[in-house]
Amino acid sequence: MGAVVAMAGLGVGAWYDAHAHLRAGAEQSSLKAAQHHLGVLRHRVTVTNYANTVTTNRRNDLEASIGTALAQLAGVDTSLSSANAGASLEGVSINTLDTCLGGVQTALNEVSANNNGAAANAISAVSGPCAQLDGGANAGLVYPFDFPDPDVILVGRTYYAYATNSVAGNIQIISSTDLTHWAAIGNALPSLPSWAKPDNTWAPSVTRVNGSFLMYYAAEVTASDTQCISVATASQPTGPFVDASSAPLECQQALGGSIDPSTFTDSNGLSYLLWKSGGPGSSKLWAEQLNGAGTGFAPNTTPAQLLVPDQPWEGGTVEAPDLVIANGHYFLFFSGNNWNSANYAVGVARCAGPLGPCADATPTPILSSGNGIAGPGGASVFPDTTGAPWIAFHAWVPGAVGFPNSRDLYVRRLDISGAAPSVAAPGT
User: What is the DSSP pairing of strand 172-176 with strand 183-187?
Assistant: First the structure.
């Protein structure tokens, strides 16, 4: 009889254990769904609403969507509590998810009230919890909101990062004093020149020349729909940057346009502009010396071709150049392959000088999908306050690759002391 009771007890225990596993599986599925929904909401808030172009119907739809996510989250939280499952699931705190979604909803409410400053503050306040949901420091994530094609500079002891139009308008800007906590500042380029099409500005690069700050960026010419490069100026890194030009600075129409500008200053003090022309299968990287003011090209100069796609992983595309010099070596960082996929990656070429010629330093990328990131690109190399090199880049969250998902901001340490640069593992 005792054996029968024992067996019955084991059977009941096994049933409860199986039931608990099924319930936990359902809760995990609910949490994953809420996390995926969060990614969609974050992109829609940053891209659609900060620009203040959303209609009442679309705003109401987004509010309802956030409400649904929060209700779903509350159901997951209740289920977890009743199941005595603890404070976290798969390493993610339910309170963390609640805080992140709540901050996104607060930002939306502020945008609805035409208070973009408060919306930016709300987003900044929950960047930490939202980063935890996307992998946080485990992947080098520092700003878990749409921040494509980043460029980072150090002014004094403050870091400023600029990115393609998303948060607050044409060129978004955030700042940090520790490379970990970043706060949204707003729109670095409030107005565009008369020739440029609104909502089509991207890939900024900022440098300091003679006490002024210059921002090179890509924009689309309204009259021709050609992508071209222009330059704006400001007296401080936070802007506002002003571009009063009547035409772009560089625009290779015969080659399919010019985008992805970046600047490089050599050890002799001469400065250069680098950029990309063409599209998939025809892209090329170029450089040309700038004049002393940085607002135009030096007299009697022409563009020099630096690099064309010649490695299988590049998939016929090279773009987003960023040139640095270390120990007498010129390293050209660039992105390759399809930007809207997990195949996107960062490679490095070695150059004879700022005008080339350049050749791939390695046959494979130095930064690609893996370790909590997907499709990294848009690299920007910059020093920290001690002079040590870092690399900033955007990447998708694995499982949420491709538009309209967000390309978030990541930073990692960089080693450029050897024959080829290497990116440090996350958290090192």
Answer: antiparallel
